[in-house]
Amino acid sequence: MKRTSLLLSLFLLVVMLTSCATSVSVRHLVPGEVDLSDFRSVAVASVSPYQFPSARPLSPWISGLQETDFTLSSGYELSIGTQVADLATDMLVQSLGQTGYFSVLPPSITDAYVSLGSVGEDVQGLLNAKGVQALLVSDITYLDMEESIVGRDVRTYVTEGTLHYEKVTSREYYLIQKATLSLTYSLLDISQNRILLSKSFTDKQERETKIGTRIYLFDTGTVGAYRDERRYASGHAPSFAPLFEQILTRFSPTIGGQLAPSYQLSQLPLLGNKPKRKEVEPAYKLVRQSSYADAYALFLETWEEQGHIPSGYNAALLLEALGRMDEAVELMSKVYHSTASQQAHDALLRMQEALSGQKKAERQISGDLNRDGQGVTMTQYMVME
């Protein structure tokens, strides 16, 4: 039985590895959600911190802590609103900078100019003098923190006389911290005083920290006797700031992709060799070796000589992986119209959409884009799980 199980496991492993190996890595250039080619110089204002409805006292107690003999102060800090706003500001500046698409006026300068508006200065003129075309403003619209202590029984098999049974021998205590954050940003055309793009995000992050263990003492003769052993050295719960930073880190690539053209990577599976052709088997091996050009040539030869559907499909897919999108669409179109393959049809539609997006992204980069309808406000609320 063990030998059979081992052979079956090895077989499944080989199948999984083969499946993973017969796919190609494809990189597509995708456009930003709006054409910002005329707004490549952006001033970034500091993120406005969340305004708590009322002052929240710093409590020395955490929900559930009374069940234990441990003491622990809350991880909530009075400065957390400002900390999160600063982290969000850094994230936005980094996100724009990493696109390689924008020149960025930093918050330290932007804030100074914006503040002059309150005393009657011409903020637009000041920013225009710096060559700025757009202003990025944002705020934390919601921020919440939860803390609680949970206990989890540890069960162990024990032997007492002739009895062998499961018994609760200890209880482990964990601090559960949950952070929730909502961020909204808007990109403004400062010359026309209009919104180019506005987006909102909400996400959550949870962390658990083991603070101690309660060990039940069964050999003392006292019913319910126990000893609590602390595992977390500090008397203060960990700060919530790293949890909010993790949330903001997840926002960053999405924001960059919304504002500027970017590359997206994906793995696309090849069609299997059915009906089987021996002469095309080396092509699959070449793909697994990342020799896409040689594999393409072999697949293409088999398709042209025998009309082998998987070979034609795979040859088109490899052209896509090689970045030759126009040729890939042309070849996949030939495969579909020659064979009426549903798989080729689906791949052709996907390729055509990818090619259209790529050309649009290229026009955004060059600035040569048809701007019909430009300036329509695009607003979306995103909940990131």
Net shape: flat
Low-confidence stretches: 10-20, 372-385
Main β-sheet: number of strands, strand sense, barrel status? 7 strands, mixed
Number of strands: 9
CATH topology of the largest domain: Rossmann fold
pLDDT averaged residue by residue: 88
N-to-C CA distance: 43 Å
Helix amount? 25-40%
* CATH class designation of the largest domain: Alpha Beta
In the CATH hierarchy, the architecture of the largest domain is 3-Layer(aba) Sandwich
As for the number of domains, it is 2
Order of helices and strands, N to C?
HEEHEHHEEEEHEHHHHHE
Report the total helices. Answer: 10
- Gyration radius, to the nearest Å? 30 Å
Strand percentage, roughly? 25-35%
Structural class computed from helices and strand pairing: alpha/beta
Model description:
The chain has 385 residues and is α/β, with parallel strands linked by helices. It folds into 2 domains: 29-263, Rossmann fold (3-Layer(aba) Sandwich); 268-366, Tetratricopeptide repeat domain (Serine Threonine Protein Phosphatase 5, Tetratricopeptide repeat). 39% of the residues lie in helices and 29% in strands. The strands form 2 sheets. Strands 2, 3, 4, 5, 6, 7 and 9 form a 7-stranded mixed sheet that branches. A two-stranded antiparallel ribbon has the order 1-8. A hairpin with a 2-residue loop joins strand 4 (134-160) and strand 5 (163-189). Helix 9 (325-339) runs antiparallel to helix 10 (342-366). The chain is flat. The chain starts with a helix and ends with a strand. The model is unreliable at 10-20 and 372-385 (pLDDT under 50).
